[in-house]
Amino acid sequence: MFSLSKFSYGTQKKIIIIAFLIVPLGLLGTFAFLPVFNMFWYSFTDWNGYSAMEFVGIENYKTIFTNPEYFRVFSVSLYYFFATFIQLAIALYFATILSFEVKFKNFFKGVIFFPYLLNGVAIGFMFLFFFRPDGTLDTLLAAVGLEGFVTQWLGNPNVINYSLAGVSVWRYMGFNFIIFLGAISSIPGEIYEAAQIDGANRWQQFRHIIFPSIKIIISLNLILAVSGALSAFEIPYIMTGGANGSSTFVIQTVDTAFKYGKIGLGSAMAVVLLFIVLIVTGIQRKYFGEGD
User: Fold this and answer.
1) What gap in Å lies between CA 246 and CA 244, rounded to an integer?
2) Same structural domain for residues 87 and 208?
3) Which helix (H) or strand (E) element contains residue 4?
4) pLDDT tens sequence across 125-174
5) Which value, in Å, is the radius of gyration of the alpha carbons in the chain?
6) What is the pTM of this model?
7) Pair 90, 165 in one domain
8) Cα–Cα distances in Å, from 15 out to 12, 45, 140?
9) CATH code of residue 201
């Protein structure tokens, strides 16, 4: 029978650590690292998913970088990119307000976080009814005398991406809100009491206490939000399928790989997106990080 008693304490500690890491590292390698490695390999092949693979080198990457159609859809990501700043601003505002003593604040916390708990498919169908002609939004606008603003919210190419970006803000704001709220709640109450004694109002407390204390959390949320904007998929795919100029780079990648059977080209597009997200994340960490 195997026994640890014959080993020194340091060796026993190492064996136990390795034993506990084997399973999670095995799962991580199987379901994370191996698929990524396969994706890199597929990107150098011409494969439709079931026939024999043909190694084509960097031809798929040449196709991506020489055809402007593949990068034109990144303009759609700009709508989600600018929406992330609105999303973060609203989340930080409500997190700051609800960190102080407010009536029914637990109720409001639940209301704000609830959309993030909903299934993405359910949200997509819900907002299809919300934006349809003579639907909920049109009825609300007519009720307040704003019939002139009524339009084809998902049928007008000039408006559709604003509508979808708004849905994205509504859904993911709760995630940023709960992170901000947790960070603000970790600030010692004695600091607020000292600031109140010195006559600091709520804005001054936010500017000189809250914001500097959660700066790194704001940077983290910004990285996550911008990365999510570049890889937007769920909301536009469910609601429009990428129609009327709402297709994102991820939707185009999925269609290329599974709709048109170009697994190799789709994998190359996924690799390109991965490097773009890594570059953007690196830039954000360099210029918007915590610093020294």
Assistant:
1) 6
2) yes
3) none
4) 899 888 888 878 888 888 887 777 777 888 888 889 999 999 999 999 99
5) 24
6) 0.81
7) yes
8) 5, 42, 65
9) 1.10.3720.10
